[in-house]
Specification:
mainly alpha
Length: 200
């Protein structure tokens, strides 16, 4: 957990990589750390071959975890452009976790953006929103779909307004979370200092 926390708040990309590598040397089978490192390697470090190796390792260690499977599906779609294989992994993730609105919403984007299967995409957008009606991202994505594909501007506007309303409602919560993280970070530093004094 400490390695993920430290890597998240480290701004220097190379230092981030060092933190992950150090963590994985200590905890080589920590699937959360492996999965997070795979996303970092893909999205930030741009080491795609190594990223794929870690995506596969996370899935191998925890094959029932739908989140790792969807992360790999996104990688296959966005980086490898292997759409058939990406769709296999999307379907597998949804089969494992059929009530996960985030994964269903991600598959809806794939159907719209890659397959151009607009009717099926709309079904999945609606399903994602029904499962998680407070999710501004899925609502905003569906609004865009309604505007760009269906040309239903009035309904799209309704969904856009709803997404904005939800985002604004989330701002106080996000501020509280950021404050908590800041205090938690300071507490960790204090605890380390106390421990050092106790040892000396």
């Amino acid at each position: 957990m400490k390695y993920q926390f430290n890597a998240h708040f480290e701004k220097n990309v190379n230092k981030k990589n060092e933190i992950y590598e150090k963590g994985l040397n200590e905890y080589p089978n920590d699937t959360d750390l492996i999965g997070q490192y795979a996303v970092f390697l893909s999205d930030i470090f741009k080491d795609y071959d190594k990223a794929e190796e870690y995506f596969k390792k996370a899935i191998e260690l925890k094959p029932e975890d739908a989140d790792y499977i969807v992360d790999y599906a996104l990688f296959l779609k966005n980086i490898r452009k292997n759409y058939d294989k990406a769709e296999e992994f999307y379907k597998k993730a949804i089969e494992l976790k059929p009530e996960d609105a985030d994964n269903i919403g991600s598959y809806a984007i794939f159907l719209y953006d890659i397959r151009k299967d607009y009717d099926k995409a709309e079904d999945y957008y609606k399903k994602a929103i029904a499962l998680k009606p407070e999710d501004a991202a899925n609502i905003g994505n569906y609004a865009f779909f309604l505007s760009a594909i269906r040309k239903d501007y009035d309904t799209a506007e309704e969904y856009y307004k709803k997404a904005i309303e939800l985002e604004l409602m989330m701002l106080p919560l996000l501020a509280t979370m950021l404050y908590s993280v800041k205090i938690f970070g300071r507490t960790m530093i204090k605890q380390k200092s106390i421990t050092k004094k106790q040892l000396s």
